[in-house]
Every structure is written in C-alpha cells, then in structure tokens.
Specification:
Elements: no helix or strand
Pfam families: zf-CCCH_2
Subcellular location: Nucleus
GO molecular function: poly(A) binding; zinc ion binding
C-alpha cells in the first residue's frame, strides 16, 4: 500500500482494494494537527460536512457539494453502479440504481481496551 492518503477517504469505493492509505486511528494532535487533510490519522467529522464554508476547518468532511466519482480498482460486477448518487445522502428512492456509500465505521473510544463483545464501534 502507498504511504499517500487516499483522497477519496472516507467515501472511497475501492475499500480494501484501494492502493492508497485509509486512516484508522484517531489523531492525537487534533484540533492542533498541522497536517490537515493529509493527516494519516482520523479527525472528527465536521457538523456542517458538505455545507462547511471554512477553508481552514480542521474537521473531516465526508461530502463536498459535488462529490467526485472515482473509477473502480478492478472490473465492475454486473448490476453494481459505481456512479455516486447526486442526491446522496438525501436520496429517498428505495431502489435507486446509483451508489450510496456506507458511512465509515466510528472508532471506539476505548480502542483495544474495549471489553464489550457487542460493541458496534470499530476497534483498531
């Protein structure tokens, strides 16, 4: 894997097949992180997300006003559309043929120290 952070993360359609780095651990220097969008660690999500107008916002922005569509890493399986729905995340069509990415898993604040077997959060 590349040491360069995936520019599509956290909505990368390639998942584990992506040749770029996907952050998994929380940034310990946030909100004073000097790396911003190129940080190799996870920053908390911005409450304004795609509507944020602060160009210096240190928070993670999952959506932009027009999300870029990226090509797949491998061949497409039939019936799978990799074109991002232009109405996502507000799309209400139950059988929309376009892609609606799942939100990235939220990281458990207890990490490897978590003792809950039924914890719904991600553990590094």
């Amino acid at each position: 894997r590349s040491q360069e952070r995936c520019r599509f993360w956290p909505v990368c359609l390639n998942g584990d097949n992506c040749p770029y780095f996907h952050p998994t651990f929380p940034c310990r220097t946030f909100p004073n992180c000097p790396y911003g969008k190129s940080c190799m660690f996870v920053h908390p999500s911005c409450k304004f997300d795609g509507r944020c107008t602060n160009s210096m916002c240190p928070y993670l922005h999952k959506l932009k006003s027009k999300p870029p569509v990226q090509p797949a890493a491998g061949p497409q399986s039939s019936g799978t559309c990799l074109t991002l729905c232009k109405y996502f995340p507000a799309c209400t069509r139950l059988k929309c043929p376009f892609h609606h990415p799942a939100p990235p898993p939220k990281i458990c604040r207890y990490g490897n120290l978590c003792t809950r077997l039924d914890c719904v959060f991600s553990h590094p």
